[in-house]
Amino acid sequence: MENTDAPFDSGSPFLDDSDRRPRRSVADWGWLTVLAMGVLAVGFFVGGLGPLFAIACDTCQDGVRNPHSIDVLIALAWYVVPLTTLGTVVAIFLPRGGGRAGAIGLGVLVALLLLMVFLGQLV
Which stretches of sequence are listed as region Disordered (predicted)? Predict the structure, then answer.
């Protein structure tokens, strides 16, 4: 017995053109490109300056504290931040949820920056 009340899959060839999702316009692609460039800029900032913010010290003699977790900071800056940035940029241009993926990726990058600063402040 066949269930005819169930909705079709969106990739079904039996749907007519009015039932399919509209294609992205030039403005949509422009917005996603700007979002991807913003994610790349934040990723470069977090990966490059995040560890420096983490070890900065106003009261230290040379302005830099000696962090005990330098290996964790390096691993975050060299591996986790670039993979998060790359994954976010790729997810932005997937067919569904580009804006949502960009927002989540930016939130994760900010959380990584805060984690690096927190780990650097632990003495």
Answer: 1-22
